[in-house]
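Progress against Task 2.4 (sequence-to-structure conversion) is shown through the following example record, which the project officer requested during the mid-term review.
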Amino acid sequence: MFRGLAVNIKIKGREAGSGCIYQPSASEHTYVITAKHCLIGKEKIEPSIEDILIQRDADIGMSHYLKVISFHLYPNDDHDFAIVIVEKISEVQSIMIAGPKRGNNVVFYGYPHIYRDDQEKGTALNATINLVHNSTKFEIQTNPSLFTFTNEAIDNVAGFSGSGIYYEFEKHIVLTGIIVRLRDTGGSFNLIIAENMETISKFVETILSCELVPYLLSSFDLYVKSTFEKYGAAALTFFNSFYKNGIKELTPFFILQSLKGKLFIPPLMEDLTAVNLQERDLWMGWSKILTFMHISAQEIINLETSVKYLYLGQEAASSQEQVEDTSMIRMLYTFQFRTISDCIKHIFLNEEMYRTIKMNDNVVINSSDSFTTKIVSKDLMKRILSNIDQVELYERRININDPNIYKNINVFHLEAFDNKFGVEGIEFCHIHELEQIIQSSINEVLKHDY
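Structure tokens generated for the chain above:
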């Protein structure tokens, strides 16, 4: 499994190290990720393209090499990785990207120099992530000893540099980093330093304008079971049917790229690193609203239908004008606010957010904490706004007695759906009853004039 993702690297015919293959979904080329020192050597001399010889495991021992297009070295000594662009390889196994997590059991596959004369030149070793250093580098501890009776650790691991470090999660292969070096040259405690894939991904995005999509942002399929299993087996089967054909073009990553800081209330206009963009609750909420929205509309989940009903940026918002009598759904996640009244105050006082919310829209709040109030009636909304400082209302030209100010919007917490499902007892319903009960419950939350 892992050997199909591994490559052996030579520079001017000499053994230089290992690398791992990554196929960006939209790229015409394939990427080989490796350690920078595998390319420049101890002398730190940058090779020519012709000097770099890369072979996949199945081609080792033959004269077939991957065609190198270009390569990109990390510009200073803070990090030890490089990206080699090669001609596109057909049928590369799909893998995901994720940062390291302490305690994860991992596997790395590479080409140690001690096996250079063997028929099988590659091998895999097991390890455990021992320590993560400020999300830039991490340590792994190999399960077999790096020492042997005849060789020191540094001799045994030479050639593993650049090897991909993987783990398996829900039947997916996840690339979390690459091997760089022993923690110390003596190989004490079997510790190896690795580069973090999150750091490598940022470099690729900057240099090549290409995203290496993090695993937890790659597909809503990852969230279906955990989102809907609490409603019972029959309901899970029903909700899962909306994903049976996949929705590849509509992913958490696509939504993140479309909305960026507008995913949140209050919006994050600059530093998205201030929050965990791979927060499961965030994307479970999106999985839920996407499903409920399409059940209400009686349409298949895809990008084309989603932009008709869901705010995904300015372009999507303008499409509301083309769909008569259709309210848009504005989905907002908050780490900061603890009450729905705080969210409403921000909606009306934040000029940009207020402008993008249109007449009759549904504003859905998801949060890291549960809210006491799930649904806001028109009377309650007016009471909340009346408690705002009068100077702020005046500066924003908000007259709470003017009904047009409210835009006839519905504001509710995502848990309002759960409350309604609980009343209907969907976890006890027969699967043939579910469709009508679920659809009517969703429509009541989305369309009721509170």
